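Side project, low priority. Logging it here so it doesn't get lost.
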Amino acid sequence: MTLSPFSRQCAMTVLAASACFIAYAQVKLPADIDAQSRARLPYLKSSEVDAKGKRVVDIFGKGGTVTGPLAFATYNPGVGQALLDLHDAAVTGGTLDPYTRELAILVACRETSYTLEWNGHEASGLKAGIDAKLIDVVRKRGSLAGLNDKDATVIRFGRQMLSDKKVDSATFAKAVELWGKRATMDMVAVMNTYAVSGFFAIAVDEHAAEGKAALPAVK
């Protein structure tokens, strides 16, 4: 069937309108979401954070607002500071090698659907030597079949601790065998450091930054 010029113009107009509608639907936020923070709470102004959160403001208070992974925890500045201290102790001061640490972080972000830190640490994981296919296994919560002992143990440990709420004896024993008691506890600390921020993000329904992909919900 051949369309007349008028019909073709109408069809193009309808297609263009449909595309605009789809694009609008994709970026439209729920009514209770702040347009800047993309969460249920607005970002704090740096001036609203008292002395207890000074280091948080120094690091994340760019442009007059507190953004980043501690943005909502810092509604109580002491809590924001405590989580920053926890990060320093568990991540910066821990005993895990960079590869294992980044994999543990990605698992924690995946199990709490924490898109903000996932998007940052996916690049860090690749830089630390984690294969893109392994990152995809974590993202999709895929099968651990065929993975080496270390990779499978980190992922299994995080899934059991954060989603199943029960780490079995075999998984714990394997972690201690591979990394030792101290590093196994450091793995727990690293995962929980990122999970805590992930729980804040869940509570305020934090959406991915515009143009960034969001992790699918854990099923």
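Brief comment: The radius of gyration is 21 Å.
Revisit when time allows.
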